[in-house]
Amino acid sequence: MGKKRKKLPGTVDKVIKPVVPSEPEKAQIEIEGADDLYREIRIENTLTDEHGEEVRLKQGAQVDVSIEADTDATLKKSKSPNWISAPHRHTNSKDPLPCGFLISAPRKIRDHLWKLRDLTAQNSRPALLPKIPMPRNLPLPMG
């Protein structure tokens, strides 16, 4: 059984000394390309070199973070619809779905908003769908 791998570049942002001497020193690593809220991880600052000696990371060191999974723990990536991968500009100013909100919205909300949009285009709104106030002036996602 094979393994699937991904390597991400990172930088040791800080070396954190333990508050209690019995606790290990930690290295905070900032992972490039990760979402803002999940960019940093903290690990015990102990590595083993090629001679079996214990070493530690320095602040500012460039590192590679490897993700590895068994083949049976992975799924083939499906192609996403065009409206997710390439946001379009809405030509109708009354369109209730600004594309920045649509792309970042959870799937359940996004599906509900698409139904609402289609019903609005037909000028009918059944009682089953509540009127949802839509946010204004949302920034478009970058990248």
Task: Please give a quick description of this structure.
The protein has 143 residues and is an alpha+beta fold. The protein has helices at residues 82-85, 99-104, 107-121, and strands at residues 3-16, 26-31, 40-44, 47-48, 54-55, 62-70.
Can you lay out the helices and strands and say which pair or pack?
Layout: E1 3-16, E2 26-31, E3 40-44, E4 47-48, E5 54-55, E6 62-70, H1 82-85, H2 99-104, H3 107-121
Antiparallel strand pairs: 1-2, 1-6, 2-3, 4-5
Low-confidence parts lasting 5 or more residues at pLDDT below 50?
83-103
Number of domains: 2
Strand line-up in the sheet with most strands: 3-2-1-6
Main sheet record: 4 strands, antiparallel
Strand content: 25-35%
Number of helices: 3
Radius of gyration: 23 Å
Provide an overview of this structure:
The radius of gyration is 23 Å and the shape is elongated. It is an alpha+beta fold and 143 residues long. The protein has 3 helices and 6 strands. The model is unreliable at 83-103 (pLDDT under 50). A hairpin with a 5-residue loop joins strand 4 and strand 5 (54-55). 17% of the residues lie in helices and 27% in strands.
Name its key features.
143 residues, alpha+beta, 2 domains, 4-stranded antiparallel beta sheet, two-stranded antiparallel ribbon, 3 helices, elongated
